[in-house]
Amino acid sequence: MSDTPSSPPASDTGAITRQQWKWSALAGMASYLDAGSIVALGAGLAILQKEFGLTDGAVGILAAIGPNALGCALGALIGGWLGDKLGRKRIYQYDLMVYAFGILLVALAVNPEMLFIGTFIVGVAVGADVPTSLALVGEFAPDKARGRLLGFTQVAWCLGPVIVLWLALALAPLGLLGIRIIFLHLFVVAVVTWAMRRGLSESVRWTQAAKSVQSGGRKLAQLFTGANLRAIIWTATIYLFWNLAAGTAGLFNPYIIRTLDAGSQAMSVGLASGNFIITMIVTVTIFMRYSDRDYKTRKLIWGVGAIMQVAAYGLFLFMPFTILSVVLNILLFSISSALSGEAFYKVFSQELFPTMLRGTAQGFTFGVARTILGIWSFFVPALAHAGIQQIAGLLTLFLAISGVVGYFFMPDTSGKSLEQIQAERS
Which of 170, 235, 240, 315 gets the most CB atoms within 10 Å of its CB? Predict the structure, then answer.
């Protein structure tokens, strides 16, 4: 018998049932596999470059077509739209098997072709899963606990890199074999998650909304008009400029640290894992606890995070690139990522769009952000060789834009039902 995610009752107290935690965990595994594959590629980038004789340009292309960028962008655009058109279940039932196939290609790659094709497939598959899975969480979450459950998926997003980076640290002496084992771990997790998701049923909110849809084309056009267009621009802006920094850190931190001789492969991987551990702790203790409280609290959390993330990369403009400055950067950025990063983007992406456009909207903004990140990733290896100041200056600017736009244009949606939010925005 399958579990059936249902809409929360009208008199919402914010209480979360055991089933809702379970659904969130299964949906959140998309974030685990997304971030895990990004960081697995990042942890092995220097080793893969040497093994397959890749140039800096080829490394940039590899980073650009995978789960961190273009492949993920394409998957998100297609998967988000299909999730709205056909239902959440049809997407999350099958995309993880595609992901598992791509990961297996990467793990067993014996030439650059296998590596590049597998990386692209992984990106497309995880891109399709993320907006669909998050829409499911947003639709069954209690009104006064949406931030808590969507924040919980962000914990999974942090846990994936932590496990991957610890494995990379432990397996560092094995070189290429260690990297292969890391990718095989993601293959196993994907297959197990796919099997466990088979018990989930369709979103009740989507089922009810689908019955009232008369014209899919007319509805899609509404995404780029009025309140929906404003929401698209706002969520795309805060996520795009934040994600340029987060994507650079997640994929390239170990590579940059080694390239600039600030630490060994084992040390670079160990330091990078601290980023995600701190973000996970702050997400649980602050974001999940307070993000549903009220509008003023949300703005306060965001504002503090915005200031810290600008400081995180601004310090490289004044300090030499050493282990000390790297540790300070990781500390500041990891805390700020929990306060003014992807977790809030996930929440607002569910709250600001109608049910039949929710996946499409997030797939679009997610896709745009990952596409631009892919273009940016192509230039990061060359910029790294030129020194940290160029990268740090640009990332500081990007984070300032995300922080300012997020703070001054944040909508008041805390604690309201999805239907109430849409009625007010209409």
Answer: 235
Using CB atoms within 10 Å of the CB of residue 78, give its burial: 0 to 12 exposed, 13 to 18 middle, 19+ buried: middle
Domains of the chain: 18-202+216-425 (1.20.1250.20)
Alpha-carbon span 189 to 158, nearest angstrom: 15
Given a contact cutoff of 8 angstroms between Cβ atoms, the answer to whether 218 and 352 are in contact is no
Q: In this structure, how many other beta carbons lie within 10 angstroms of the beta carbon of residue 86?
A: 13
Amino acid identity at 306: A
Q: How many angstroms separate the CA atoms of 53 and 63, rounded? A: 15
Q: What pLDDT, on a 0 to 100 scale, did the predictor assign at position 267?
A: 65
What is the SS3 assignment for 8?
Answer: coil
The structure tokens listed for 78 are 């297609």
- For 292-325, the DSSP string reads TS-HHHHHHHHHHHHHHHHHHHHGGGTS-SSHHH
Helices 146-171, 112-140: inter-axial angle, 10-degree rounding: 150
Position 35 confidence tier, pLDDT thresholds 50, 70, 90:
confident
Which residues are paired to 3 by β-bridges?
200
Q: Is the pTM here over 0.85, yes or no?
A: yes
Alpha-carbon span 262 to 387, nearest angstrom: 12
d(CA 32, CA 217): 33
Nearest by Cα to 115 from 69, 178, 179:
179
5's CB contacts (< 8 A; 6+ apart) are 20, 23, 136, 139, 140, 200, 201, 202, 203, 204
**CA dihedral defined by 206, 211, 212, 213, rounded to 10 degrees?**
80
Three-class secondary structure of residue 200 per DSSP: strand
Considering only CA atoms, give the Rg of the chain: 20
373: tokens are 């990140």
- The CA distance from 13 to 120, in Å, is 43
pLDDT of residue 255: 58
As a whole number of angstroms, the distance between CA 281 and CA 334 comes to 10
Centroid of chain to Cα 313: 20
How far apart CA 310 and CA 403 sit, in angstroms, is 8
Angstrom distance (rounded) from CA 413 to CA 411 = 6
Question: What crossing angle do the helices spanning 295-314 and 342-351 adopt, rounded to 10°?
Answer: 140
